[in-house]
Amino acid sequence: DRLPALLRTMPKAELHIHIEGSLEPELIFKLAQRNGVALSYPSVEALRAAYAFTDLQSFLDIYYAGASVLLKEQDFFDMAWAYLEKAAAENVVHTEIFFDPQTHTARGVPMQTVILGLHHACQRAHQELGLSAKLILCFLRHLSEEDALATLEAALPWREYFIGVGLDSSERGHPPEKFARVFARAGELGLHRVAHAGEEGPPAYVTSALDVLKVERIDHGVRSVEDPALMDRLAAERMPLTVCPLSNLKLCGVKDLADHQLPQLLSHGLVAMLNSDDPAYFGGYLNANYLACFEAMPALGAKQAYMLARNSFEASFVSAAQRAQWQ
Ligand code: HPA
Ligand code: ZN
């Protein structure tokens, strides 16, 4: 069976990866020591043992705690570089990386420290790994829209270092409508727009992300399967869904990967592809997501593998000329 080899070696893009979610426990401890930050876990093993999540919030609490060790530009560089080396080794040729500036600026870390550390890693990946890497600035939806607006303005001196904005963190109770003005502002600035919707929240959040935030992709979006009219619309508009199967499994969105919505999304003609979301927390990087899905879902074969890779390029924010190099 040559399918696993195909999955590992085919060129692909990753479009849904939170860089703070790529921070491995070993690097958390190394940075904690380097920066003199106290952790509430005695060892790498104890921290990893705490990665038993029941829902999105139970994950977010520990994810924000892990990010507290990031203080200096070098820390952000080291975190991103570790991810980029792994991505290149998995034949990811293009990646669009989410970062959460508010998680850091709220602790007194300057915006410049965050963006320059990440940007320099992306630049080096291009030079040394031949990997194209872009940044997407995410707003935390559990915070206010005023905070998001201030964050966007604070990032504008480094406008050319990120290609778009996203919306993440606790979904339920924080509908897309809450961020209408900041997404309109991002649109005026010529930034791409994406948002997490339909991960834990209802399909109505997917609809309002499209209609109110004018997003070009939906992150997760798996609960769209509950609304047949929405499924038809997503297919007709070729609206991409950045699906993260191991994330949905670890956050108990599905009981078993065999129950995952991916085959349904693909058979409905949606532009879905696979992503790792928070690989250090959810049990694997991009190829682990591919391998686990193809193992668990009998509907997936070589045809679907090529389709997923093709969708990853179609849904990316790179030019058609650039895409032609990879496909
Ligand atoms: N959902 C919402 N917010 C997040 C996630 C996610 O899967 N990962 C990191 N922040
Ligand atoms: Zn996510």
TrEMBL record:
<comment type="similarity">
    <text>Belongs to the metallo-dependent hydrolases superfamily. Adenosine and AMP deaminases family. Adenine deaminase type 2 subfamily.</text>
</comment>
<feature type="binding site">
    <location>
        <position position="278"/>
    </location>
    <ligand>
        <name>substrate</name>
    </ligand>
</feature>
<keyword id="KW-0479">Metal-binding</keyword>
<feature type="site" description="Important for catalytic activity">
    <location>
        <position position="220"/>
    </location>
</feature>
<feature type="binding site">
    <location>
        <position position="277"/>
    </location>
    <ligand>
        <name>Zn(2+)</name>
    </ligand>
</feature>
<feature type="binding site">
    <location>
        <position position="196"/>
    </location>
    <ligand>
        <name>Zn(2+)</name>
    </ligand>
</feature>
<dbReference type="InterPro" id="IPR006330">
    <property type="entry name" value="Ado/ade_deaminase"/>
</dbReference>
<comment type="function">
    <text>Catalyzes the hydrolytic deamination of adenine to hypoxanthine. Plays an important role in the purine salvage pathway and in nitrogen catabolism.</text>
</comment>
<dbReference type="GO" id="GO:0016787">
    <property type="term" value="F:hydrolase activity"/>
</dbReference>
<feature type="binding site">
    <location>
        <position position="16"/>
    </location>
    <ligand>
        <name>Zn(2+)</name>
    </ligand>
</feature>
<dbReference type="Pfam" id="PF00962">
    <property type="entry name" value="A_deaminase"/>
</dbReference>
<feature type="domain" description="Adenosine deaminase">
    <location>
        <begin position="11"/>
        <end position="327"/>
    </location>
</feature>
<keyword id="KW-0546">Nucleotide metabolism</keyword>
<dbReference type="InterPro" id="IPR001365">
    <property type="entry name" value="A_deaminase_dom"/>
</dbReference>
<dbReference type="InterPro" id="IPR032466">
    <property type="entry name" value="Metal_Hydrolase"/>
</dbReference>
<protein>
    <recommendedName>
        <fullName>Adenine deaminase</fullName>
        <ecNumber>3.5.4.2</ecNumber>
    </recommendedName>
</protein>
<feature type="active site" description="Proton donor">
    <location>
        <position position="199"/>
    </location>
</feature>
<feature type="binding site">
    <location>
        <position position="18"/>
    </location>
    <ligand>
        <name>Zn(2+)</name>
    </ligand>
</feature>
<dbReference type="InterPro" id="IPR028892">
    <property type="entry name" value="ADE"/>
</dbReference>
<keyword id="KW-0862">Zinc</keyword>
<keyword id="KW-0378">Hydrolase</keyword>
